[in-house]
Amino acid sequence: MIEKLQVELGDRTYPIFIGSDILHQSQNFVPYIKSKQVLIVSNVTVAPLYLDNIKSVLTDFQCHEVILPDGEAYKTLEILNLVFDSLLQNRLNRQVTVVALGGGVIGDMAGFAAACYQRGVPFIQVPTTLLSQVDSSVGGKTGVNHALGKNMIGAFYQPQCVVIDTNTLNTLDDRQLSAGIAEVIKYGLINDLEFFVWLENNMQSLLNRNPESLRYAIKASCQNKANVVAEDEKEAGVRALLNLGHTFGHAIETNEGYGTWLHGEAVSIGLLMAAILSYKQGWITEDDKNRVQQCLASANLPYKIPEKMNADDFIKLMSVDKKVKDGVIRLVLMKSIGESFVTSEYDHSLLIETLNGV
Ligand code: NAD
Ligand code: GLY
Is 37 exposed, middle or buried (0-12, 13-18, 19+ CB in 10 A)? Predict the structure, then answer.
């Protein structure tokens, strides 16, 4: 069975297909490809697992491929150039469709390449990690990192469709699965108490990769994200909520070196920091703060600030966050589980206490 959701963006509306073993089904791809030319972008880990799969449904197309090194540390302009090299060396034209086959790193890079090549060519997202299936493949944020800041170079650019095959999660290691669950928990904390309670009750089943539980969590997450993106594609308002935990998390990723912490792990610590600051402010109860910590712990996610990071390190890096306005760091914080909001009206000394881990 295939679930179909839509990201409603007028004439750029696109479907999200969710199902098991759906990489073999050409109808999820072929109608969304504009010409005979296809460039599949993948990496050295994912290509041996799934490239042939995709190629077998694209036999009517001239399929080219570019295989990038694997890892967050390679999400750079330099490595992105390999995609442009391939597009040009193969003389691919303005109608070429770029297919992103991999996790969030490949999705963000291939999407950004598609946004830039000849000022924009179509692309398709085929996310293969839980994190990319529930978050990065949907909504059109694409880009690369800079040494001074995470995801600082990029574009909003929507795909033609998103094809989520939950079977691909069977080859993902446990640490990566947990990292994806951090983004799933995020949706519950932002605006969906019922989903958060479901996660509290079904965490073991997700960790055991129960197909029904995975499908439910992916669908709920994608629906939530699709709703937010439809309302605020370019993050003028409500979309900023999707960054709950990320201002802290991005600072950890940048400070520690890209790839040291998985994105989802850094977000996990950031979610707890948001809960702690919200608790210190008196906005959420101690019980709610503890529930956040317990939920993250039950997913085998980290929730402790890296020992060598102090408030100064955080503030320096958080000051280049995309939500900074007129020099003030705006944060996504919580009024309760299931109700987050963006604010710059917090007590700075409580922020410093939180950043120092006290
Ligand atoms: P990732 O892309 O690095 O993938 C994690 C690891 O899993 C990699 O080693 C990858 O090769 C491997 N892998 C992928 N699929 C696999 C499979 N099916 N089986 C076995 N191994 C597999 O990391 P990620 O967690 O998917 O994504 C993180 C990135 O996504 C970060 O760069 C983050 O900034 C970005 N992100 C973007 C958005 C957005 O809205 N664009 C949202 C959240 C995160
Ligand atoms: N991951 C945050 C966003 O897509 O807006």
Answer: buried
pLDDT in tens, 271-303: 999 999 999 999 999 999 999 999 999 999 999
Sequence-distant (6+) residues with CB within 8 A of 48 are: none
Set 250, 289, 291, 330: catalytic member? 250
* Rounded Cα–Cα distance for residues 306 and 297 (Å): 16
Cα–Cα distance for residue pair 318/144, rounded to 1 Å: 18
| Single-letter residue type at 263 | H
The model's pLDDT over 19-40, given as tens digits with 9 standing for 90+, comes to 999 999 999 999 999 899 999 9
**CA angle centred on 330, ends 326 and 336, rounded to 5°:** 155
- Residue with the smallest CA separation from ligand 1 atom 42 is 136
Domains of the chain are 3-171 (3.40.50.1970), 174-355 (1.20.1090.10)
Q: What is the pLDDT of residues 154-205, one digit of tens each?
A: 999 999 999 999 999 999 999 999 999 999 999 999 999 999 999 999 999 9
Choosing from 74, 176, 186, 221 the residue with most ligand 1 atoms within 8 A of its CB, the one to mutate for a pocket test is: 176
Instruction: Kindly give the distance from the C-alpha atom of residue 22 to the centroid of ligand 1, in angstroms, as a whole number.
Output: 20
Does the pLDDT value for residue 130 go beyond 90? yes
Ligand 1 centroid – CA 328 distance (Å): 30
Local structure of 17: helix, strand or coil: strand
Residue among 45, 123, 156, 242 whose CB has most ligand 1 atoms within 8 A, to mutate: 45
Instruction: Ligand 2, residue 240: give the atom nearest the CA.
Output: 5
Residue nearest to atom 2 of ligand 2 (CA): 242
CA-wise closest residue to 187 among 209, 158, 150, 218:
218
| Residue-averaged pLDDT of the chain | 96
Q: Is any ligand 2 atom within 6 A of the Cβ of residue 242?
A: yes
From the CB of 266, is ligand 1 less than 6 Å away? no
Q: Give the residue among 192, 309, 294, 202 at the shortest CA–CA distance from 256.
A: 309
